[in-house]
Structures are given as structure tokens and as C-alpha cells.
């Protein structure tokens, strides 16, 4: 397919010209021939010096040895400088030391940002100040962190010496001492190997945190007081924790008791609801049984010849008691209520088939027979002992226990008591 491409595209696939061959300028290393072959060092041994004439080897200094040597040299130079300055040091003839030495207070470890006016405000509370001398570096002009304060009265200096030590000024605790250069014989400043000392004795277990005076008894007492105070705070914290634990346990017990009481109340309410529900269910069952009994009696009465037997009417079918028993209502025997009952009764009978009525009748007859055999004796005793009038039972001897409980015999024998409301209802007309 490439032959059909245009010439400009075919030119892209054309091969290049071959690379021209050029002869090398010189021979390769492996092609060169050496005129002199390799030989050993035997001819040059006679040029070496005799080992017996060589000097002994020297031992070089290690890094640790060099550092130790420099440290010793530095200490020696410093000791020489201290000895030279100590010979020249005379505090009594120092031109910078002015004023009364017994009224001058030495303040060290001062913050570099603290000014002379700030020092004056802090130390004037102990008495009137005559002069404050801040010490600065001669080379850089920066403060060196200590000053001398001269009071007008010696008692004010003693008060400041006693109470101002450890006072925090601009975030740093200062060290307060008397001027010892002119008051203590043989005392030397720290730069000459003396000074207060005591704060850099060794490790953390040896160093002390207070001022570096030799008399540390009051600081030891302060440390003991501080330790006792710390122990007292720890004991108080432990008591508070224990009290809080007891309080939390009591709260938990009260919460659990409240929850148990709440559960008990809820269970009691549920039990009462269950009892009410069971009571309603039993009452509904009793009403349902009474309704079924009324229907059966109506069917039996309708199928047995249309009222040859004189049976008491049900509580729901009997007319209201508007007059004395034995009399008809105001509408007569064919009143609208009686007609409505007959019409409903006929409708229910028409809805049932003959086979269903026969099966129901046989089942009811068997049930009444069993009930009569089981409770006949008790029914006769109840009729004989608790009946009113002449021992009438209104045709309830053949009914079961449930039917006899629903229909109660009246004292006069003319009606019966309905189980729903306890009213005296008159008997159905024959």
C-alpha cells in the first residue's frame, strides 16, 4: 500500500546514505607494540637507604588527648591571670566603690531589661534610697545583671537584705546580699575564685536552688516547710478524690434505686393494665355468652311452636318497666317496639338454613343435657333455698350454670333481674 502514497510521504521512508569509512589516525592501545618490555624493581633496590639509618617512628596525638591538653592549658592561663589580678585587686581603693559599705546592698541575677527606675520602685518600699549603681560591660556597654543600692539608713538596708532575697522582678528572682568586698576580710569576688558560691556545686542532686550564702539553715527550714505544705496539699487532694468517689458511688446508688423504683412502678402499671384488660375481656366474654344464649333461646322458642312454652324474655327484648309487673306497655301488645323485635327475629331465622338450625339445636340440646346432669343438684338446691315466692324457677332448671347466673329469680316470681344492670324486668307475655 505504500506505493500509492504521494512522493512527499514516500521520501520520509527512503533510506539514508551509508556512513563513509575513515581510517583511524593512530593505532589502538592493544595494537601498539612496546619497544621496552616490563621488568621488576630489582635494579632499583640499591637506591634505597639503609633501615638502620632511618629515624624512629613518632606517635600522633589523638583527639581526646588534644582536647585534654587544651583544657589544662586554659586552666593554667586562667590561674595565672587570677593570681595577677588578685595582686592588683584592692576594694578599698577602687574608684567605682563609693558610699558607705554598711549601707550598700548588692543585687544580682537582675533581668537585662530591668531599668534603674524599676529597681528603685521595687526597693524603695524598704526605705529611702540614696544611690543606685548599675554595672555595665566596658566593651559592649550592655548590663551585666547586677547592681549596688545604697540606702540612707543602715536599718533599711538590713530590712531589704532580710526580705527582698528571692523577689521576682521582670520575671526573674533576684539574689540580694550585703557588699562583702569592703566589709568581709579575705573575701574575693567570683571572677577571682571566690564569690557567694553554693549554687554550682555539682549535679542536680547537689545544687541548691536558693541564694548562695554559706548560711543555708533558714533555706533548709524553708525547704522543709515547703515539703510539709506539699504533703498537706497531696493529702487534701487525696481526701477530695476519696470524697468525690464516695459521692459518685452514692449518686450511682440513688440513680439505681430510682431506676428500680421506676421499673417497679412501670411493672405495676403494666400489671394493672393487664388486669383491666383481662377484666374487660372476661366481661366481653360474659356479654357474648349472654347474647348467644338469648339467640339460642329465641331460636328454640321460635322453632318449638311459636310460644307454647312460657319462657322469660331476654333483657334486651323486654320492654321497659313503665308500670307494675303483669301489665302491658302503653303501646299495647302490637306496639312498634314489639313489631320491630318480631321483624328482626324473622330476618335472623330466614338467614339461617334448616340444616344449620337443626345442627345448632342438637348441639345446644346435648350441651344443656350435660350441664343439667353436672349442675342439676346444685340448681335444685339454689331454687329450693334462695327462690322467692313458692319456689318458682321460671323454666331455668334445664339451663347451664352460665344461664342460671344471668337470670335471677325475683322475690315475687313475676319477673327476673337482668345481669347487666340489676333492674327488675317483667316476663315476656305468653
Automatic annotation (TrEMBL):
- Single GO molecular function: U1 snRNA binding
One Gene Ontology term from the biological process aspect of the record: regulation of RNA splicing
Q: Where is the composition biased (Gly residues)?
A: 192-201
- Where located? Nucleus speckle; Nucleus, Nucleoplasm
Q: Which residues fall in a compositionally biased region of kind Basic and acidic residues?
A: 60-79, 207-245, 260-277, 285-301, 336-384
Keyword Nucleus set for record: yes
- What does the entry list under GO cellular component? nuclear speck; precatalytic spliceosome; U1 snRNP; U2-type prespliceosome
| Alphabetical list of Pfam families matching this protein | RRM_1, U1snRNP70_N
Q: Which UniProt keywords apply?
A: Nucleus, Ribonucleoprotein, RNA-binding
**Domain RRM positions:** 103-181
- Report the protein's function: Component of the spliceosomal U1 snRNP, which is essential for recognition of the pre-mRNA 5' splice-site and the subsequent assembly of the spliceosome. SNRNP70 binds to the loop I region of U1-snRNA.
Against PANTHER family, the record matches this protein to: U1 SMALL NUCLEAR RIBONUCLEOPROTEIN 70 KD (PTHR13952), U1 SMALL NUCLEAR RIBONUCLEOPROTEIN 70 KDA (PTHR13952:SF5)
- Annotated protein name in UniProt: U1 small nuclear ribonucleoprotein 70 kDa
The gene it comes from is SNRNP70
Amino acid at each position: 500500500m505504500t506505493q500509492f502514497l504521494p512522493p512527499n510521504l514516500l521520501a520520509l521512508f527512503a533510506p539514508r546514505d551509508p556512513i563513509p569509512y575513515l581510517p583511524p589516525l593512530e593505532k589502538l592501545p592493544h595494537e601498539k607494540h612496546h619497544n621496552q618490555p616490563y621488568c621488576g624493581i630489582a635494579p632499583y633496590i640499591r637506591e634505597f637507604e639503609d633501615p638502620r639509618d632511618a629515624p624512629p617512628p613518632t606517635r600522633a596525638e589523638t583527639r581526646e588527648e588534644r582536647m585534654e591538653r587544651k583544657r589544662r592549658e586554659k586552666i593554667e592561663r586562667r590561674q595565672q591571670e587570677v593570681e595577677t589580678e588578685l595582686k592588683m585587686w584592692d576594694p578599698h581603693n577602687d574608684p567605682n566603690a563609693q558610699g558607705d559599705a554598711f549601707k550598700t546592698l548588692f543585687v544580682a541575677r537582675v533581668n537585662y531589661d530591668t531599668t534603674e527606675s524599676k529597681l528603685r520602685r521595687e526597693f524603695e518600699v524598704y526605705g529611702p534610697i540614696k544611690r543606685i549603681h548599675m554595672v555595665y560591660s566596658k566593651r559592649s556597654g550592655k548590663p551585666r545583671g547586677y547592681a549596688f543600692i545604697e540606702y540612707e539608713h543602715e536599718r533599711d538596708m538590713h530590712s531589704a537584705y532580710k526580705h527582698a532575697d528571692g523577689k521576682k522582678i521582670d520575671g526573674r528572682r533576684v539574689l540580694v546580699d550585703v557588699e562583702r568586698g569592703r566589709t568581709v576580710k579575705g573575701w574575693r569576688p567570683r571572677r577571682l575564685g571566690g564569690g557567694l558560691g553554693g549554687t554550682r556545686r555539682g549535679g542536680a542532686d547537689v545544687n541548691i536552688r536558693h541564694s548562695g550564702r554559706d548560711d543555708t539553715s533558714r533555706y533548709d527550714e524553708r525547704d522543709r516547710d515547703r515539703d510539709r505544705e506539699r504533703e498537706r496539699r497531696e493529702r487534701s487532694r487525696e481526701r477530695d478524690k476519696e470524697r468525690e468517689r464516695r459521692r459518685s458511688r452514692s449518686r450511682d446508688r440513688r440513680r439505681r434505686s430510682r431506676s428500680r423504683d421506676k421499673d417497679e412502678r412501670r411493672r405495676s402499671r403494666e400489671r394493672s393494665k393487664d388486669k383491666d384488660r383481662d377484666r374487660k375481656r372476661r366481661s366481653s366474654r360474659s356479654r357474648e355468652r349472654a347474647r348467644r344464649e338469648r339467640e339460642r333461646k329465641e331460636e328454640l322458642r321460635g322453632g318449638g311452636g311459636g310460644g307454647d312454652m312460657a319462657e322469660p324474655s331476654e333483657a334486651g327484648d323486654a320492654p321497659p318497666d313503665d308500670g307494675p309487673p303483669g301489665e302491658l306497655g302503653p303501646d299495647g301488645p302490637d306496639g312498634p317496639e314489639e313489631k320491630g323485635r318480631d321483624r328482626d327475629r324473622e330476618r335472623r331465622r330466614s338467614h339461617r338454613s334448616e340444616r344449620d338450625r337443626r345442627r345448632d339445636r342438637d348441639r345446644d340440646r346435648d350441651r344443656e343435657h350435660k350441664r343439667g346432669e353436672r349442675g342439676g343438684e346444685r340448681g335444685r338446691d339454689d331454687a329450693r333455698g334462695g327462690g322467692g315466692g313458692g319456689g318458682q324457677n321460671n323454666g331455668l332448671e334445664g339451663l347451664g350454670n352460665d344461664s342460671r347466673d344471668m337470670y335471677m329469680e325475683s322475690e315475687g316470681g313475676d319477673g327476673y333481674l337482668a345481669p347487666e344492670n340489676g333492674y327488675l324486668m317483667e316476663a315476656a307475655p305468653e
